[in-house]
Structure formats: C-alpha cells, structure tokens
Amino acid sequence: MAPLPAPAPASLLCLFFLCLLAAPCPGARAARFACNATAPRASTCQALISYAPPNGTATPTLAAVRALFQLRSHRALLAANGLPLSTPPTAPAPAPLRVRLPCLCSGGAGATFQRPTYRVRAGDTLDAVARGVFAGLVTYQDIAAANNVSDPNRVAVGQQLWIPVPCSCDPVAGQPVVHFTYVVPTGGSVAGIAQEFSTTEETILAVNKMADSKALVAGQVLDVPLRACGSAISSTAIDRNLLVPNGSYVLTANNCVMCGCSSSTWQLDCQPTQGLSSSFCPAAKCGDMFLGNTSSTSSCESTTCSYAGYTNTTSFAILANVTTSNVCNAGMSPVAQPVHSSAFRLERAWLRWTELVFSLHVVLVCLGYLRQD
Ligand SMILES: *[C@@H]1O[C@H](CO)[C@@H](O)[C@H](O)[C@H]1NC(C)=O
Ligand SMILES: *[C@@H]1O[C@H](CO)[C@@H](O)[C@H](O)[C@H]1NC(C)=O
Ligand SMILES: *[C@@H]1O[C@H](CO)[C@@H](O)[C@H](O)[C@H]1NC(C)=O
Ligand SMILES: *[C@@H]1O[C@H](CO)[C@@H](O)[C@H](O)[C@H]1NC(C)=O
Ligand SMILES: *[C@@H]1O[C@H](CO)[C@@H](O)[C@H](O)[C@H]1NC(C)=O
Ligand SMILES: *[C@@H]1O[C@H](CO)[C@@H](O)[C@H](O)[C@H]1NC(C)=O
Ligand SMILES: *[C@@H]1O[C@H](CO)[C@@H](O)[C@H](O)[C@H]1NC(C)=O
C-alpha cells in the first residue's frame, strides 16, 4: 500500500468527482452561440432575435419594444417583421416580434453588440431582469458575467447593465444565414421548430451542439439559422453583407432602396423607395431598365434589373445589374440547406462513450477507496 496516496484525501477527491458526475450544475444553462467568424467585416452582422413578452405582462406597443432594445429606427423594426411602413409606433407589437440588432463575435461566441442595456430599478433582481423583462433570452449568469457583477442578488438601483443576448454571424454549411435567437416555448420540438423556420432538424442540432432532439427543453435559447434570399450584391458594395430572411424586408442605400425576401423565389426583390430618404437618391438603372423592372425574354426566362449594392467612394451611387431567372422553375420547393452532421453526431457519440467509460472508472476506483476507509 506504500506507493498509494493517503486514503483520506483520495476518498475526498473521489467524493468530489462522484458529486460532479451525479449532480449536473443546477440553474439555467447559459446559452452561448458559437461565433468564430473573424474576418473584420464578418465578425459583426445583423442578428435577429425573437421577443415574446413574458407571460402575465400586457402586450407592449411597438414603441415600447423599440425602447426596451434601444432600436434606432421604428422603420427597421417594421421591416424586420414584414409590417407595412405605415404601421404607427403605438400599434400593439405582434408576439413574437423579430428584433434586429448588431451581433459581435468575440472569443468564439457571439453576443449582441453593446445593446440592449437596462437600468436597474428598485426591487429588481438579475433573474427578474433576465426572465421577466428580457423573456429568458439571457440567463442571470450571462448578465452577471458580462457586467462583472459578483453577487447577482445585489445590484445597485440605477446601475446600467448590458444584456448580452446570444447571436452568431457564422455561415452554416458554407451558406450565409441569419441566426435567429429563439426561446423554445412549452411543448416545442426540434422537428416543429425546423418546420416552422424552413430548416432541418440536423441543422438545428448541429448548430446548437445538441446530441439529439430529446435534449431540447422549454425555455432553452436556441440558435435557428434562417435561410436568406440570394442577391446580386457586389462584394465591393458597402452593404455587401446584407442578409434578408423570408418574411422580412430591409431599407438600405440610405433608405433609397427597399429589399424584400420571399420564400416563393428566395431572391432579393429590391425597389426604389419613393420619398423615404431624407436626402437625394441617385437613379439606379441597368441600361434602359430601372431598378426592380422585370421583362420576359422568352416563355421561361425573365430578366430583372436587380440591386447590386451601393458605394460612396467618389460619390453616393446605387448599383444595379441585370439578372436572369428561370420562371418555369420558380415556385419549386427551396433547396434544403445541406449540413454534414453525421461526422458531428459520431463525434458526440464518441465523446459520450468516453465520458461514460471515464465515469465508470472513477466510480469503481472510488468505491474501492471508500471501502478501505
Ligand atoms: C471586475 O471586478 C473586479 C473586482 O471588483 C476587478 O478587479 C476587475 O477589474 C473588473 N473587471 C472588469 C472587466 O470590469
Ligand atoms: C468554428 O470553429 C470550429 C472549431 O474551431 C470549426 O469546427 C468550425 O467549422 C468553425 N465554424 C466556422 C463557421 O468557421
Ligand atoms: C405562457 O402561457 C401560455 C398560455 O397560457 C402557456 O401555454 C405557456 O406555457 C406559458 N409559458 C410559460 C413560460 O409559462
Ligand atoms: C454585373 O454582373 C457581371 C456578370 O455577372 C459582373 O461581372 C459585374 O461585376 C456585375 N456588376 C456589379 C456592379 O455588380
Ligand atoms: C415565409 O414567410 C411567410 C410570411 O411570414 C410565411 O407564411 C411562410 O410560411 C414562410 N415560408 C417559409 C418557407 O419559411
Ligand atoms: C420600371 O421602374 C420604374 C422606377 O421604379 C417604374 O416607375 C416603372 O413603372 C417600371 N416599369 C415597369 C414596366 O415595371
Ligand atoms: C457619402 O460620403 C459623404 C462624404 O464622406 C458623406 O457625407 C455622405 O453622408 C455619404 N453618403 C452616404 C449615402 O453614405
């Protein structure tokens, strides 16, 4: 027995390991979306967040949600939700509402950049802010860590907190996507969520590093990659990273152009806006055609003067380019986003297996030690 360590500390160590294995960490699991895009422009993007007011709170107005998330523009909120531009700020917010915020990747994880912030009121706890105000989009642990709060039960009234909502800018299977931050509702399933957002179960599981669909729990903050419409936007344009998912539109080129995305074509549909921009809008043309004009060249083919981005190097210019599309193929089911998840699943299975073997070893060794005591 001489070479063996003293039994007392060893059994303590074993008890510690056993406890670790037996009791998973209590409390909500902090959501962190993988976000390892590092190229200067790719490391920030527009994130989309699903906000459903917490149960028991009155339906807020659009203006109230805009204030909660410090959104700079009412129009941008309407655009993200595909609502008509005439919708007034006093209109009740549809639930859930889509909120577009800048996302920043840093250290392999993404969080909304600097916004939203929240000023602590009398009687607030971090958990009440996380779940009661921000509808579970963050955990109190996330808020505490992001704001260097050592005791989550003691936050000073008036203290300004940054709410780091998880987000991502990473392409999925080489395809650009918009990552949608979604709180799983009661009764939600991976299959149901995949169907609702036109993606696949495999994609959701892979992106969220989940072993299988059964791992999904209500209240979990899920990363749902949304397919974005294809476009002719030039890689040198200022708005080259413009990604618009189905059911929404954006105002770009200094509000001179409005682009919508519909799952019937999966191609960005851009038109000049009339009278929306506060400044001069240069004409956007492809030869004789104006931006947004379409003409059919044959029974199956049509050409469109498509939006190609805007530049402002010498002067503000809106680019446009002729694109051809096969109208006979339009309306066919969209191509599913391929994700090579089998390798990923294998890896997970292997990890779980090694974990199990390791656990068994610890238990056996520990039982041996404990019996010696
Ligand atoms: C967090 O708080 C500790 C102790 O109060 C302090 O030393 C540290 O500099 C703080 N970090 C940040 C990022 O504010
Ligand atoms: C992010 O990093 C991981 C591990 O380094 C890698 O497997 C993955 O492909 C990366 N994702 C992207 C979108 O670059
Ligand atoms: C909110 O209320 C709805 C309907 O009353 C219920 O189905 C849902 O489970 C509730 N959600 C939470 C998080 O309590
Ligand atoms: C227009 O399309 C052509 C061919 O696809 C491409 O070479 C050109 O760069 C495009 N122009 C702009 C402004 O995007
Ligand atoms: C696209 O959005 C519309 C309206 O928001 C919705 O009815 C439709 O089901 C969506 N289609 C896909 C494929 O996501
Ligand atoms: C072409 O676009 C211009 C400017 O948007 C519009 O006034 C005109 O009606 C369009 N013509 C056709 C045939 O769509
Ligand atoms: C273009 O650049 C000029 C000078 O830098 C700036 O004043 C103007 O606001 C820019 N216009 C747009 C649409 O970005």
From TrEMBL:
Known CDD domains for this protein?
Answer: LysM
Q: Which InterPro entries match?
A: LysM, LysM_dom_sf
What positions does the domain LysM occupy?
116-163, 180-224
Signal peptide residue numbers: 1-30
- Sorted UniProt keywords: Signal
Supply the Gene3D superfamilies for this chain.
LysM domain (3.10.350.10)
Please give the superkingdom of this protein's source.
Eukaryota
Give the PANTHER family listed for this entry. LYSM DOMAIN-CONTAINING GPI-ANCHORED PROTEIN 2
Q: What is this protein called?
A: LysM domain-containing protein
Recorded source organism is: Sorghum bicolor (Sorghum)
